[in-house]
Amino acid sequence: MMTISSLKKETKNQEIEGLPDPPYVMMSLLGYQSQLKPLVEPGIHVLQYQLIAQSENNWSIKLHAPISGIVDVVEYNGQNYIKITNDFKNERMVCVPPKLAALNNQDILRVIRDAGIVGSGGAGFPTHIKYDVADRPITHFIINGAECEPYLSADYSLMNQEENHLWKTVQVIQKLIKAKYVILAIEKQNRELKKKIEHQISQLNINIKVQLLGNDYPQGSELQLIKTVTGKIIPKGSIPAHHGVIVSNIGTIKAIANALYQGIPYTERIVTVSGEKAKTRGNFLLKIGTPIHHILEQIGQDWQPDDQQIILGGPMMGKAVTHSEESISKGTGGLLLLRHLKTEVFNCIQCGYCADVCPQKLMPMEFARHAVRGNSDGLNQFDLKSCIECGACAYVCPSDVPLMSSIITGKQLIKTKL
Amino acid sequence: MNLHPFIKAPRNTTQAIMLDVIVALIPITIASYLAYGTLALTLLGTAITAAVVTDLVFSGILFGNWKTSLDGSSVITAMLLTFTISPLTPWFVVAFGAATAIIFGKILWGGLGKNLFNPALVGREFMSCIFSSILGASSIWVTSNFIHIPAQDFFLVQDDEPVKTYLSTLLYNPSGALGEYSPFLIMLGGFYLILRKRISWHIPTMLLGVFAMSSIVVGDRVNLDYSFAGLLFGTIFMATDMPSSPNNASGKIYYGAMIGLVTFILVWSGVKFSYLSYSILILNGFSSIISQVFKPNPWGKKTNRLQKSEEIALLTTAILGVTIAVIYLHENHALIYLLVVYVFYVVLKYAFDFRHKLKYPI
User: Looking at the complex, does the CB of residue A161 fall below 8 Å from at least one CB of chain B?
Assistant: First the structure.
């Protein structure tokens, strides 16, 4: 593992700001391992917070309108979206917060499900499925406040500025999953938060342990976080709840808090806008579905893909944006404007840096060797399937060996050979 | 395909690594200049010129791309090679060594990083085998007439203060090969490389540790003839060479320990001057196997301890077997045949195998 320096310090203490609502939103219909089905016909008018799409499988992942306006279903780059053209009337559904005291466990899971809550860390696993532990014993409930992606400070600004609902929500979830210990995990570089939060929770009489972690990347990755907090080494692909551990991102807790205490579904989130090429940097509360070009316009910048690399998410695991209509999703913690990387491939010099930084203890240089030669046995021998694609190896490689593309083509190769 | 990650570690290119090694060699270069003046610099210059020109020409002809020869690695090869020889070595011998180091140590393997052996040591063996009468003559080590600045008395030594005399020689002592004049400056370069993460502590610590332990175990029963400064130089700059050493931590620990052990066996058997280059070259040959055997245990997976122990035992036996064979060849002045076999091997391997894999970075 390693530390990565970035512009995080520049944005982390900035207050969360709003932006004017976009003229339209683009709601992606891609859910966790599923496609969502629109529940509204093109041309009709929807209210803010109205349910507009739902997955067809029994996970029932839901999508709600973040603004009021006219619905359309459109396709961009082979991806389906619901487009809502803003009428700027802010007509909303009547939101009544549930009466918490009267809710049983099933009711709480239903509230979480109906608010369309999925993990805000990126993978987008439906939260009500994760919390439905039935009688399985849960020892540790870990709240992931380790925002190990460079540049991003959305989670930090949330914890720094949030009021009490966040911690009350943690308590509700603890009772729901009957967790023995509750740990809020944050990085050492944010240690100033520890006192502040400890004060807040002692006032509320809630028992949360605030644990400081190293500043390494990828400390916030689920498996590494579980190991640091509990000492348990869970193999990739195994479900943490089966080992008595449940991890939730702090952003997810915020979305649940909004559902429990205000009755509003997951329709907004905090996004860090940063990067060397960004003229305005900060943490913004944005509607889910806000198109990138709207954010760029608001911060006074142009869509210039030749000049800058535009990223949704963090610089290590995020996704390069190829189209300005792409938008903020429930798992997007950042919009970064970075310099284009200059890469020049040299031979691997066996420096071993990639193996040193691999959090999964793999030998990434071997993936580059075997993937180009189509040798799936070699890839399996070096356990490619345990790779979490954190990008640490490619970050540190001095020879720009195409490690990440080898990992991705290698995984496809293994799949086709099965 | 525009894939994550979208940032890279700053100042961490292959050229930056090579530059760091060159920086670490500067203090030793200064010591060699203090000791033998322009004689030292002429040899270094000859070697560097020969290496870089050979690299340019051969990578231009064979790879169709001469740009890779400007990564700085051939400068390092030439410097390392020069630091292992006497200041009285004729210039054409050094040029020959540098050129063969590049051709047979690096280019024919497919270029930087793909070589199994440390190129500088390969060049050194070519020189000592081909010019054995020049380099084997004892007169080549009679250098006192050429000394620029003699050994200094840094601590104002009185008659019976061997400790202070010894400390003075650790700082500066112009005897032996060109890179061996200041253990202090060698260590300085080593610390710089560790600080810059270009080498790790594993190989040097294990190598010197095992060698020292073995010497203590044997005690006074045998007279061990070796140069401490030479051992230190090889440990820090040769044994840690990235392409020819294992690429993971536990592999490096084993590798360092085995070089220490093999070096000790060679010194004990009476091999002179070349004990460290033989031991490093022997372990170079096993380094990629060591990397595989000692590969870290993937997250959440169990190791087969029995299988791993068997592999390590087999590996150790093979290394010791090769060591004995090398001692036998050395005593019978037959290493030249090994060199001939090596030349045939790399030439054929290049022609039929490596040539077709140039496009792969690993």
Answer: no
Please tell me whether residues A350 and A243 are part of one structural domain: no
Q: Sign of dihedral through CA atoms B48, B54, B57, B60?
A: negative
Residue A306 placed within a domain: no
Is the residue at A275 inside a domain? no
d(CA B99, CA B139): 25
* B58-77 residues touching A, CB cutoff 8 A: 68, 71
Q: Are residues A401 and A255 in the same domain?
A: no
Which A residues, 357 through 416, put their C-beta within 8 Å of a C-beta on chain B? 358-363, 365, 368-369, 372-373, 382-383, 386, 389, 391-392, 394-396, 398-402, 404-405, 408
| Chain B contact for A34 (CB, 8 A cutoff) | no
From A261, A290, A312, give the residue that closes a domain.
A261
Facing residue for B16 by CB, picked from A320, A348, A398: A398
Is the backbone peptide bond immediately before A218 cis, with ω within 30 degrees of 0? yes
A195, part of any domain: yes
Is residue B162 within 8 angstroms of chain A, CB to CB? no
- Ordered per-residue pLDDT tens for chain B, 362 residues: 589 999 999 999 999 999 999 999 999 999 999 999 999 999 999 999 999 999 999 999 999 888 888 899 999 999 999 999 999 999 999 999 999 999 999 999 999 999 999 999 999 999 999 999 999 888 888 888 888 888 877 776 666 677 777 888 888 988 899 999 999 999 999 999 999 999 999 999 999 999 999 999 988 777 888 999 999 999 999 999 999 999 999 999 999 999 999 999 999 999 988 999 999 999 999 999 999 999 999 999 988 899 999 999 999 999 999 999 999 999 999 999 999 999 999 999 999 999 999 999 99
Q: Does residue A386 share a domain with residue A256?
A: no
DSSP strand pairing (A179-187 vs A138-144): parallel
CATH number at residue A215: 3.40.50.11540
Number of domain units in chain A:
2
Quote the pTM value. Answer: 0.94
Tell whether A121 and A218 lie within a shared domain.
Answer: yes
The 10 Å CB-count burial string (b at 16+, else e) for A318-355 is bbbbebbbbbbbbbbbbbbbbeeeeeeebbbbbbbbbb
| Among B residues 294-333, those touching chain A with beta carbons less than 8 Å apart | 295-301
ipTM (interface predicted TM): 0.94
Q: A361 is in which domain, residue-wise?
A: 345-417
A257 and A114 in one domain?
yes
Q: What is the DSSP string of A259-293?
A: HHHT---S-EEEEEEE-TT-SS-EEEEEETT-BHH
Q: Answer whether residue A60 is part of any domain.
A: no
Chain A residue nearest residue B295, CA to CA: A363
Question: For chain B, what is the total number of helices (H) and then of strands (E)?
Answer: 14, 0
Which residue among A261, A285, A304 closes a domain?
A: A261
Residues of A in contact with B9 (CB under 8 A): 4, 395-396, 398
